Amino acid sequence: MQLETKFLHALPSSVRVPQYDRSKLTAGIVHIGVGNFHRAHQAWYLHRLFDEGLDHDWAIIGAGVRPYDAAQREKLLAQSCLTTLIELDPSGTSAEVIGSMIDYLPIEEGNGPLIEQLAEANIRIVALTVTEGGYYIDPAAKAFDADHPDIRHDALNTASPCTAFGAIVAALKIRRDSGAGPFTIQSCDNLQGNGKIVRQTVVSLAQLSDPDLAAWIDKACSFPNSMVDCIVPATGPKELELVSNLGISDAAPVTHENFRQWVIEDDFCAGRPAWERVGATMSDQVHDFEVMKIRILNAGHQVLANSAEILSVETISEAVTHPLIGDFFRKVARTEIAPHVGAVPGMLPDDYIDLIDRRFSNPKIVDTTRRVAFDGSSRHTGFLLPVIKDALASGASFQGLALAEAAWARMCQGVREDGSVIEANDPCWSELNAVAVVARETPAAWLAQTQFYGDLALQPDFATAFDHWLRLIWDKGMEHALSEFVTGQ
Protein backbone atom coordinates (compact mmCIF):
# COMPACT_ATOMS: atom_id res chain seq x y z
CA MET A 1 0.00 0.00 0.00
CA GLN A 2 1.38 3.41 -1.01
CA LEU A 3 2.08 5.58 2.04
CA GLU A 4 -0.30 8.50 1.64
CA THR A 5 -2.77 10.20 3.98
CA LYS A 6 -5.78 8.93 2.03
CA PHE A 7 -4.61 5.32 2.40
CA LEU A 8 -3.81 5.34 6.13
CA HIS A 9 -7.05 3.58 6.98
CA ALA A 10 -6.05 0.67 4.73
CA LEU A 11 -2.67 -0.06 6.32
CA PRO A 12 -2.25 -3.28 8.30
CA SER A 13 -3.91 -3.12 11.73
CA SER A 14 -0.55 -3.86 13.38
CA VAL A 15 0.79 -0.49 12.21
CA ARG A 16 -0.11 2.44 14.44
CA VAL A 17 -1.35 5.44 12.39
CA PRO A 18 -2.08 9.08 13.32
CA GLN A 19 -5.17 9.50 15.46
CA TYR A 20 -5.59 13.15 14.41
CA ASP A 21 -6.94 14.86 11.31
CA ARG A 22 -3.81 15.96 9.45
CA SER A 23 -5.82 18.36 7.28
CA LYS A 24 -6.45 20.49 10.37
CA LEU A 25 -2.79 20.82 11.37
CA THR A 26 -1.12 24.21 10.93
CA ALA A 27 2.57 24.99 10.95
CA GLY A 28 4.48 26.38 13.92
CA ILE A 29 7.95 24.91 13.35
CA VAL A 30 10.36 24.89 10.43
CA HIS A 31 12.90 22.10 10.80
CA ILE A 32 16.10 22.40 8.75
CA GLY A 33 17.76 19.05 8.12
CA VAL A 34 15.04 16.41 7.72
CA GLY A 35 17.19 13.35 8.20
CA ASN A 36 16.43 10.04 9.84
CA PHE A 37 17.26 11.24 13.33
CA HIS A 38 14.85 14.16 13.23
CA ARG A 39 12.01 11.98 12.00
CA ALA A 40 12.63 9.29 14.65
CA HIS A 41 13.06 11.80 17.45
CA GLN A 42 11.72 15.38 17.41
CA ALA A 43 9.02 14.65 14.83
CA TRP A 44 7.90 11.59 16.83
CA TYR A 45 7.42 13.58 20.06
CA LEU A 46 5.27 16.11 18.22
CA HIS A 47 3.31 13.34 16.48
CA ARG A 48 2.50 11.71 19.83
CA LEU A 49 1.46 15.10 21.22
CA PHE A 50 -0.94 15.52 18.30
CA ASP A 51 -2.30 12.07 19.09
CA GLU A 52 -3.19 13.42 22.54
CA GLY A 53 -5.34 16.06 20.84
CA LEU A 54 -2.93 18.84 21.77
CA ASP A 55 -1.03 21.66 20.04
CA HIS A 56 -2.22 21.08 16.47
CA ASP A 57 -0.88 24.52 15.52
CA TRP A 58 2.73 23.33 15.92
CA ALA A 59 3.12 21.09 12.85
CA ILE A 60 6.48 20.90 11.10
CA ILE A 61 7.49 22.25 7.72
CA GLY A 62 10.66 20.55 6.52
CA ALA A 63 13.54 22.42 4.92
CA GLY A 64 17.07 21.98 3.63
CA VAL A 65 19.80 24.16 2.18
CA ARG A 66 21.92 21.71 0.18
CA PRO A 67 21.23 20.27 -3.28
CA TYR A 68 21.12 16.70 -1.90
CA ASP A 69 18.14 17.67 0.28
CA ALA A 70 16.05 17.88 -2.90
CA ALA A 71 15.96 14.09 -3.27
CA GLN A 72 14.67 13.69 0.29
CA ARG A 73 12.04 16.36 -0.36
CA GLU A 74 10.84 14.57 -3.48
CA LYS A 75 10.49 11.24 -1.63
CA LEU A 76 8.58 12.74 1.30
CA LEU A 77 6.24 14.95 -0.72
CA ALA A 78 5.28 11.90 -2.81
CA GLN A 79 3.97 10.26 0.38
CA SER A 80 2.23 13.21 2.05
CA CYS A 81 5.33 13.86 4.22
CA LEU A 82 4.53 10.69 6.17
CA THR A 83 7.23 8.41 7.59
CA THR A 84 7.07 4.82 8.77
CA LEU A 85 9.04 4.38 11.98
CA ILE A 86 10.10 0.81 12.72
CA GLU A 87 11.17 0.11 16.29
CA LEU A 88 13.78 -2.63 16.51
CA ASP A 89 13.63 -4.29 19.91
CA PRO A 90 15.34 -7.61 20.70
CA SER A 91 11.96 -8.88 21.88
CA GLY A 92 10.12 -7.89 18.68
CA THR A 93 9.48 -5.29 15.98
CA SER A 94 6.71 -2.70 15.88
CA ALA A 95 5.82 0.08 13.46
CA GLU A 96 3.93 3.35 13.35
CA VAL A 97 3.34 6.04 10.76
CA ILE A 98 3.99 9.59 11.95
CA GLY A 99 2.33 12.63 10.40
CA SER A 100 3.65 15.68 12.25
CA MET A 101 5.35 17.11 9.15
CA ILE A 102 2.94 18.70 6.67
CA ASP A 103 5.15 20.21 3.97
CA TYR A 104 8.73 20.39 2.67
CA LEU A 105 10.03 23.64 1.20
CA PRO A 106 11.65 23.79 -2.25
CA ILE A 107 15.46 23.67 -2.26
CA GLU A 108 16.62 26.71 -4.22
CA GLU A 109 19.85 28.62 -4.62
CA GLY A 110 19.64 31.71 -2.44
CA ASN A 111 17.10 29.99 -0.16
CA GLY A 112 14.23 32.30 -1.11
CA PRO A 113 11.41 29.88 -0.16
CA LEU A 114 13.04 29.16 3.19
CA ILE A 115 13.47 32.85 4.03
CA GLU A 116 9.89 33.59 3.00
CA GLN A 117 8.52 30.80 5.20
CA LEU A 118 10.67 31.74 8.20
CA ALA A 119 9.40 35.31 7.93
CA GLU A 120 5.78 34.20 8.44
CA ALA A 121 4.47 35.12 11.90
CA ASN A 122 3.04 31.64 12.57
CA ILE A 123 6.55 30.16 12.60
CA ARG A 124 7.64 30.37 16.22
CA ILE A 125 10.44 27.80 16.35
CA VAL A 126 13.21 27.14 13.82
CA ALA A 127 14.89 23.83 14.65
CA LEU A 128 18.04 22.33 13.16
CA THR A 129 19.76 18.98 12.80
CA VAL A 130 22.72 19.91 10.59
CA THR A 131 25.35 17.58 12.20
CA GLU A 132 27.93 18.43 14.81
CA GLY A 133 30.25 19.98 12.24
CA GLY A 134 27.60 22.19 10.61
CA TYR A 135 27.81 25.27 12.83
CA TYR A 136 30.88 26.98 11.30
CA ILE A 137 32.95 26.68 14.46
CA ASP A 138 36.73 26.42 14.36
CA PRO A 139 37.22 23.07 16.18
CA ALA A 140 40.47 24.07 17.91
CA ALA A 141 39.56 27.63 18.90
CA LYS A 142 35.87 26.80 19.56
CA ALA A 143 35.11 30.16 17.96
CA PHE A 144 32.96 31.24 15.03
CA ASP A 145 34.78 30.78 11.73
CA ALA A 146 34.18 34.13 10.06
CA ASP A 147 36.63 33.24 7.28
CA HIS A 148 34.74 30.20 6.00
CA PRO A 149 33.78 30.73 2.34
CA ASP A 150 30.09 30.07 3.09
CA ILE A 151 30.10 32.68 5.84
CA ARG A 152 31.90 35.24 3.70
CA HIS A 153 29.32 34.64 0.98
CA ASP A 154 26.39 35.16 3.35
CA ALA A 155 27.88 38.30 4.86
CA LEU A 156 28.07 39.83 1.38
CA ASN A 157 24.81 38.37 0.03
CA THR A 158 22.36 38.78 2.89
CA ALA A 159 19.27 38.46 0.68
CA SER A 160 20.47 35.26 -1.03
CA PRO A 161 22.48 33.28 1.53
CA CYS A 162 23.79 29.75 1.03
CA THR A 163 23.61 28.60 4.66
CA ALA A 164 20.73 27.86 7.01
CA PHE A 165 22.06 30.50 9.36
CA GLY A 166 22.11 33.11 6.61
CA ALA A 167 18.47 32.29 5.88
CA ILE A 168 17.63 32.63 9.58
CA VAL A 169 19.32 36.04 9.77
CA ALA A 170 17.59 37.25 6.59
CA ALA A 171 14.18 36.13 7.89
CA LEU A 172 14.73 37.72 11.29
CA LYS A 173 15.50 41.04 9.62
CA ILE A 174 12.15 40.86 7.81
CA ARG A 175 10.36 39.89 11.03
CA ARG A 176 11.95 42.70 13.00
CA ASP A 177 11.05 45.26 10.35
CA SER A 178 7.50 43.94 9.87
CA GLY A 179 6.72 43.58 13.55
CA ALA A 180 6.26 39.80 13.33
CA GLY A 181 8.75 39.47 16.16
CA PRO A 182 11.45 36.94 17.02
CA PHE A 183 11.38 33.16 17.02
CA THR A 184 13.27 30.50 18.94
CA ILE A 185 16.27 28.87 17.25
CA GLN A 186 16.58 25.32 18.57
CA SER A 187 19.59 23.13 17.83
CA CYS A 188 18.87 19.40 18.02
CA ASP A 189 22.44 18.28 17.29
CA ASN A 190 24.82 16.39 19.57
CA LEU A 191 26.82 19.35 20.83
CA GLN A 192 27.54 20.36 24.39
CA GLY A 193 25.83 23.69 24.87
CA ASN A 194 24.15 23.45 21.48
CA GLY A 195 21.96 26.48 22.28
CA LYS A 196 25.00 28.57 23.09
CA ILE A 197 26.72 27.38 19.92
CA VAL A 198 23.81 28.18 17.59
CA ARG A 199 23.43 31.60 19.26
CA GLN A 200 27.12 32.27 18.59
CA THR A 201 26.78 31.27 14.93
CA VAL A 202 23.59 33.24 14.19
CA VAL A 203 24.54 36.40 16.09
CA SER A 204 28.13 36.39 14.79
CA LEU A 205 26.95 36.02 11.19
CA ALA A 206 24.47 38.89 11.60
CA GLN A 207 27.21 41.01 13.17
CA LEU A 208 29.25 40.81 9.95
CA SER A 209 26.61 42.68 7.95
CA ASP A 210 24.24 44.41 10.40
CA PRO A 211 25.40 44.99 14.00
CA ASP A 212 22.03 46.49 15.01
CA LEU A 213 20.20 43.39 13.77
CA ALA A 214 22.72 41.18 15.58
CA ALA A 215 22.03 43.00 18.84
CA TRP A 216 18.27 42.61 18.36
CA ILE A 217 18.59 38.89 17.63
CA ASP A 218 20.80 38.36 20.67
CA LYS A 219 18.29 40.10 22.93
CA ALA A 220 14.95 39.05 21.45
CA CYS A 221 15.45 35.46 20.24
CA SER A 222 15.78 32.35 22.38
CA PHE A 223 18.41 29.63 21.93
CA PRO A 224 17.54 26.79 24.34
CA ASN A 225 20.07 24.10 25.09
CA SER A 226 18.90 20.53 24.62
CA MET A 227 20.14 16.97 24.77
CA VAL A 228 18.84 14.45 22.24
CA ASP A 229 19.29 10.69 22.24
CA CYS A 230 18.06 7.84 20.07
CA ILE A 231 20.10 5.42 17.96
CA VAL A 232 18.85 5.75 14.38
CA PRO A 233 20.66 3.83 11.63
CA ALA A 234 20.89 5.00 8.05
CA THR A 235 18.24 3.67 5.67
CA GLY A 236 19.43 1.10 3.16
CA PRO A 237 18.17 -2.05 1.42
CA LYS A 238 17.51 -3.89 4.72
CA GLU A 239 15.35 -1.08 6.04
CA LEU A 240 13.45 -0.81 2.78
CA GLU A 241 12.83 -4.55 2.90
CA LEU A 242 11.52 -4.29 6.47
CA VAL A 243 8.91 -1.69 5.56
CA SER A 244 7.97 -3.60 2.40
CA ASN A 245 7.40 -6.72 4.52
CA LEU A 246 4.88 -4.69 6.50
CA GLY A 247 2.92 -4.13 3.30
CA ILE A 248 3.86 -0.45 3.04
CA SER A 249 5.42 1.33 0.08
CA ASP A 250 7.60 3.93 1.84
CA ALA A 251 10.62 5.38 0.02
CA ALA A 252 12.11 6.84 3.23
CA PRO A 253 11.37 4.63 6.26
CA VAL A 254 13.32 4.99 9.48
CA THR A 255 14.43 2.30 11.92
CA HIS A 256 15.32 3.10 15.51
CA GLU A 257 15.99 1.54 18.88
CA ASN A 258 13.40 1.24 21.66
CA PHE A 259 14.79 4.22 23.56
CA ARG A 260 14.41 7.99 23.26
CA GLN A 261 15.44 10.89 25.43
CA TRP A 262 15.02 14.63 24.97
CA VAL A 263 16.04 17.06 27.71
CA ILE A 264 15.18 20.68 26.92
CA GLU A 265 15.90 24.01 28.56
CA ASP A 266 12.57 25.82 28.89
CA ASP A 267 13.57 29.03 27.09
CA PHE A 268 11.20 29.79 24.19
CA CYS A 269 10.51 33.42 23.31
CA ALA A 270 7.40 32.70 21.20
CA GLY A 271 5.88 29.71 22.96
CA ARG A 272 6.38 25.97 22.47
CA PRO A 273 4.52 22.66 22.27
CA ALA A 274 3.86 20.76 25.51
CA TRP A 275 6.55 18.14 24.79
CA GLU A 276 6.69 17.13 28.45
CA ARG A 277 3.21 15.59 28.03
CA VAL A 278 4.76 12.87 25.83
CA GLY A 279 7.99 12.12 27.65
CA ALA A 280 10.41 14.99 27.05
CA THR A 281 12.15 16.42 30.11
CA MET A 282 12.09 20.18 30.62
CA SER A 283 15.07 20.96 32.84
CA ASP A 284 17.57 23.62 33.84
CA GLN A 285 20.17 20.82 34.15
CA VAL A 286 20.57 20.15 30.43
CA HIS A 287 24.34 20.53 30.68
CA ASP A 288 24.62 17.66 33.18
CA PHE A 289 22.47 15.36 31.03
CA GLU A 290 24.38 16.21 27.87
CA VAL A 291 27.80 15.71 29.47
CA MET A 292 26.76 12.20 30.52
CA LYS A 293 25.34 11.37 27.11
CA ILE A 294 28.01 12.95 24.93
CA ARG A 295 30.95 11.66 26.95
CA ILE A 296 29.69 8.10 27.42
CA LEU A 297 27.45 7.37 24.42
CA ASN A 298 28.92 9.61 21.71
CA ALA A 299 32.55 9.30 22.81
CA GLY A 300 31.94 5.59 23.33
CA HIS A 301 30.70 5.32 19.77
CA GLN A 302 34.05 6.65 18.54
CA VAL A 303 36.00 4.33 20.85
CA LEU A 304 34.16 1.39 19.29
CA ALA A 305 33.85 2.47 15.67
CA ASN A 306 37.45 3.35 14.82
CA SER A 307 38.83 0.10 16.22
CA ALA A 308 36.05 -1.85 14.55
CA GLU A 309 36.69 -0.27 11.15
CA ILE A 310 40.35 -1.29 11.32
CA LEU A 311 39.33 -4.86 12.18
CA SER A 312 36.51 -5.05 9.57
CA VAL A 313 33.77 -5.33 12.20
CA GLU A 314 30.77 -3.93 10.38
CA THR A 315 28.22 -2.96 13.04
CA ILE A 316 28.19 -1.40 16.50
CA SER A 317 26.36 -4.40 18.01
CA GLU A 318 29.12 -6.68 16.65
CA ALA A 319 31.77 -4.30 17.98
CA VAL A 320 30.43 -4.09 21.53
CA THR A 321 30.08 -7.89 21.71
CA HIS A 322 33.57 -8.42 20.26
CA PRO A 323 35.70 -9.66 23.18
CA LEU A 324 38.45 -7.07 22.77
CA ILE A 325 36.64 -4.06 21.27
CA GLY A 326 33.75 -4.38 23.74
CA ASP A 327 36.04 -4.74 26.75
CA PHE A 328 38.06 -1.77 25.49
CA PHE A 329 34.92 0.37 25.42
CA ARG A 330 33.77 -0.77 28.86
CA LYS A 331 37.16 -0.21 30.50
CA VAL A 332 37.65 3.22 28.95
CA ALA A 333 34.10 4.24 29.87
CA ARG A 334 34.37 3.13 33.50
CA THR A 335 37.94 4.08 34.33
CA GLU A 336 38.68 7.09 32.12
CA ILE A 337 35.37 8.73 31.15
CA ALA A 338 33.03 8.15 34.11
CA PRO A 339 35.35 9.96 36.58
CA HIS A 340 34.67 13.14 34.57
CA VAL A 341 30.88 12.72 34.44
CA GLY A 342 28.50 13.76 37.20
CA ALA A 343 25.25 12.07 38.16
CA VAL A 344 21.90 13.36 36.86
CA PRO A 345 18.49 12.91 38.47
CA GLY A 346 17.76 9.19 38.44
CA MET A 347 21.02 8.04 36.89
CA LEU A 348 24.61 7.42 38.07
CA PRO A 349 27.43 7.29 35.47
CA ASP A 350 28.11 3.57 35.99
CA ASP A 351 24.41 2.78 35.58
CA TYR A 352 24.37 4.83 32.39
CA ILE A 353 27.33 2.85 31.06
CA ASP A 354 25.33 -0.35 31.66
CA LEU A 355 22.36 1.18 29.81
CA ILE A 356 24.53 2.19 26.85
CA ASP A 357 26.17 -1.24 26.76
CA ARG A 358 22.72 -2.85 26.45
CA ARG A 359 21.60 -0.39 23.80
CA PHE A 360 24.76 -0.82 21.74
CA SER A 361 24.38 -4.62 21.97
CA ASN A 362 20.94 -4.67 20.32
CA PRO A 363 21.54 -6.93 17.27
CA LYS A 364 18.42 -5.69 15.51
CA ILE A 365 19.93 -2.19 15.20
CA VAL A 366 22.15 -2.51 12.14
CA ASP A 367 24.12 0.64 12.90
CA THR A 368 27.27 0.49 10.83
CA THR A 369 30.67 1.38 12.19
CA ARG A 370 31.16 3.43 9.05
CA ARG A 371 28.17 5.65 9.87
CA VAL A 372 29.31 6.10 13.46
CA ALA A 373 32.90 6.82 12.41
CA PHE A 374 31.79 9.50 9.94
CA ASP A 375 33.13 13.03 10.54
CA GLY A 376 35.66 12.07 13.19
CA SER A 377 37.23 15.50 12.82
CA SER A 378 34.12 16.93 14.49
CA ARG A 379 33.25 14.00 16.72
CA HIS A 380 36.68 13.42 18.25
CA THR A 381 37.12 17.13 18.94
CA GLY A 382 33.61 17.40 20.38
CA PHE A 383 33.28 14.12 22.27
CA LEU A 384 36.70 12.72 23.24
CA LEU A 385 39.16 15.60 23.46
CA PRO A 386 37.31 17.42 26.27
CA VAL A 387 37.59 14.26 28.39
CA ILE A 388 41.30 13.95 27.60
CA LYS A 389 41.85 17.56 28.65
CA ASP A 390 39.96 16.99 31.92
CA ALA A 391 42.03 13.87 32.58
CA LEU A 392 45.29 15.72 31.98
CA ALA A 393 44.22 18.62 34.19
CA SER A 394 43.28 16.33 37.08
CA GLY A 395 46.13 13.83 36.76
CA ALA A 396 43.71 11.02 35.94
CA SER A 397 44.24 8.04 33.63
CA PHE A 398 44.10 8.62 29.86
CA GLN A 399 45.88 5.62 28.31
CA GLY A 400 42.71 4.19 26.77
CA LEU A 401 41.74 7.59 25.42
CA ALA A 402 45.18 7.91 23.85
CA LEU A 403 44.66 4.47 22.28
CA ALA A 404 41.30 5.64 20.91
CA GLU A 405 43.00 8.61 19.25
CA ALA A 406 45.69 6.32 17.84
CA ALA A 407 42.95 4.09 16.41
CA TRP A 408 41.42 7.12 14.67
CA ALA A 409 44.82 7.97 13.17
CA ARG A 410 45.28 4.37 12.02
CA MET A 411 41.76 4.26 10.53
CA CYS A 412 42.35 7.46 8.57
CA GLN A 413 45.29 5.79 6.79
CA GLY A 414 42.49 4.28 4.73
CA VAL A 415 43.24 0.54 4.63
CA ARG A 416 41.90 -2.07 7.08
CA GLU A 417 44.12 -4.79 8.46
CA ASP A 418 42.58 -7.27 6.01
CA GLY A 419 43.72 -5.05 3.12
CA SER A 420 40.30 -3.64 2.20
CA VAL A 421 39.99 0.08 1.53
CA ILE A 422 38.24 2.48 3.91
CA GLU A 423 36.52 4.94 1.64
CA ALA A 424 36.60 8.69 2.39
CA ASN A 425 34.48 9.23 5.50
CA ASP A 426 35.13 12.75 6.74
CA PRO A 427 34.80 16.28 5.32
CA CYS A 428 38.55 16.59 5.97
CA TRP A 429 39.42 13.11 4.68
CA SER A 430 42.12 14.13 2.18
CA GLU A 431 43.98 16.10 4.81
CA LEU A 432 43.54 13.44 7.49
CA ASN A 433 44.61 10.64 5.15
CA ALA A 434 47.79 12.45 4.13
CA VAL A 435 48.79 13.08 7.75
CA ALA A 436 47.87 9.52 8.79
CA VAL A 437 50.28 8.13 6.19
CA VAL A 438 53.09 10.27 7.62
CA ALA A 439 52.08 9.42 11.20
CA ARG A 440 52.77 5.74 10.61
CA GLU A 441 56.48 6.53 10.95
CA THR A 442 56.14 9.84 12.82
CA PRO A 443 53.16 9.68 15.23
CA ALA A 444 53.76 13.25 16.40
CA ALA A 445 52.58 14.46 12.98
CA TRP A 446 49.03 13.44 13.88
CA LEU A 447 48.88 15.44 17.10
CA ALA A 448 50.49 18.38 15.29
CA GLN A 449 47.11 19.01 13.62
CA THR A 450 46.38 21.93 15.90
CA GLN A 451 43.08 22.62 14.15
CA PHE A 452 41.84 19.49 15.95
CA TYR A 453 44.18 18.95 18.89
CA GLY A 454 45.10 22.47 19.93
CA ASP A 455 48.10 22.23 22.25
CA LEU A 456 47.73 18.53 23.14
CA ALA A 457 50.93 17.79 21.22
CA LEU A 458 52.72 19.91 23.84
CA GLN A 459 51.48 17.66 26.66
CA PRO A 460 54.43 15.24 26.90
CA ASP A 461 52.63 12.49 28.83
CA PHE A 462 49.78 12.33 26.34
CA ALA A 463 52.10 12.63 23.33
CA THR A 464 54.20 9.75 24.67
CA ALA A 465 51.14 7.56 25.24
CA PHE A 466 49.78 8.31 21.77
CA ASP A 467 53.17 7.54 20.20
CA HIS A 468 53.29 4.19 22.01
CA TRP A 469 49.83 3.08 20.96
CA LEU A 470 50.05 4.13 17.31
CA ARG A 471 53.42 2.44 16.85
CA LEU A 472 52.07 -0.70 18.56
CA ILE A 473 49.00 -0.80 16.31
CA TRP A 474 51.19 -0.59 13.23
CA ASP A 475 53.82 -3.03 14.53
CA LYS A 476 51.63 -5.75 16.07
CA GLY A 477 48.05 -4.97 15.06
CA MET A 478 44.92 -3.47 16.53
CA GLU A 479 43.94 -6.56 18.52
CA HIS A 480 47.35 -6.72 20.20
CA ALA A 481 47.08 -3.08 21.25
CA LEU A 482 43.55 -3.59 22.57
CA SER A 483 44.63 -6.68 24.49
CA GLU A 484 47.56 -4.83 26.07
CA PHE A 485 45.27 -2.09 27.31
CA VAL A 486 42.41 -4.36 28.44
CA THR A 487 44.64 -6.81 30.33
CA GLY A 488 47.28 -4.32 31.41
CA GLN A 489 49.97 -6.61 30.00
From TrEMBL:
Residues 28-276 form the Mannitol dehydrogenase N-terminal domain. The keyword Protease does not apply. It is an enzyme of class 1 (oxidoreductase). Residues 286-470 form the Mannitol dehydrogenase C-terminal domain. Its EC number is 1.1.1.-. It comes from the Bacteria. Keywords: Oxidoreductase. One of its GO terms (molecular function) is oxidoreductase activity. The keyword Amino-acid biosynthesis does not apply. InterPro entries: 6-PGluconate_DH-like_C_sf (IPR008927), 6PGD_dom2 (IPR013328), Mannitol_DH (IPR000669), Mannitol_DH/Oxidoreductase (IPR050988), Mannitol_DH_C (IPR013118), Mannitol_DH_N (IPR013131), NAD(P)-bd_dom_sf (IPR036291). This is Mannitol dehydrogenase family protein.
